[in-house]
Amino acid sequence: MIAEYVMQNKENFYRLAYSYVQNPDDALDIVQDSIQKAITSEQLKDQKAIKSWFYKIIVNTSLDFLRRKKKITVVDDTTIQLHMKGREDHYKDIDLHQALNELLPEYRIVIVLRYFEDLKIEEVAEILDLNINTVKTRIYKALKILRVQMEEFNTEGERHNG
């Protein structure tokens, strides 16, 4: 059951890990470590909860990795495009990726889980071990910051093009 679920959703798990570490090899390592943890774990009581349970493992493994490595690398446009292939990117404008990367990690992860992974607010709260209201507040603040950043990018673009 676990292996089948992971194989069906491996791109989503990779994207989530990648959103934390911004490095393709490290993201693959995190997904592999997470799969190993999931298979050896006996904590999944309800098979219906597998989605949030495995996302939580990915998040925690990513955070552990960052704590161990104490590094965050900046990703160039070419790397982003290379790893986004095979799936149509609805956000053609790289400014969104840049704006997301500039968010504090606690804001970026709620946006990634909610809008890129299409999880419900309740699922995001469960995965991150947060109160639902905290998740709602972080999403609201993150969207507000993104809106301001995107307006700045658009204004700068108009100045350069105009």
Detail the topology: elements first, then pairings.
Layout: H1 2-8, H2 10-21, H3 24-40, H4 50-69, H5 77-84, H6 94-102, H7 105-116, H8 121-128, H9 132-161
Question: What key attributes describe this structure?
Answer:
mainly alpha, 2 domains, Arc Repressor Mutant, subunit A, RNA_pol_sigma-70_dom, Rna Polymerase Sigma Factor, Chain: A, 162 residues, 9 helices, sigma factor, DNA binding
CATH class of the largest domain: Mainly Alpha
In total, the number of domains comes to 2
Low-pLDDT residue intervals, each spanning 5 or more residues: 85-92
Report the principal-axis shape.
globular
How many helices? The count is 9
Task: Give me the CATH fold name of the largest domain.
Answer: Rna Polymerase Sigma Factor, Chain: A
- The counted number of beta strands is 0
Helix content: over 70%
Please report which band the strand proportion falls in: under 5%, 5-15%, 15-25%, 25-35%, 35-45% or over 45%.
under 5%
Q: Mean pLDDT, nearest integer?
A: 79
Rg for CA atoms: 17 Å
Coarse structural class:
mainly alpha
Query: Distance between termini?
Result: 56 Å
What would you say the CATH architecture of the largest domain is?
A: Orthogonal Bundle
Query: How would you spell out the order of helices and strands?
Result: HHHHHHHHH
Q: What about the largest sheet?
A: none
GO biological process, one term: DNA-templated transcription initiation
Domain RNA polymerase sigma-70 region: 6-71
Keywords: Sigma factor, Transcription, Transcription regulation
InterPro entries: RNA_pol_sigma-70-like (IPR039425), RNA_pol_sigma-70_dom (IPR014284), RNA_pol_sigma70_r2 (IPR007627), RNA_pol_sigma70_r4_t2 (IPR013249), RNA_pol_sigma_r2 (IPR013325), RNA_pol_sigma_r3/r4-like (IPR013324), WH-like_DNA-bd_sf (IPR036388)
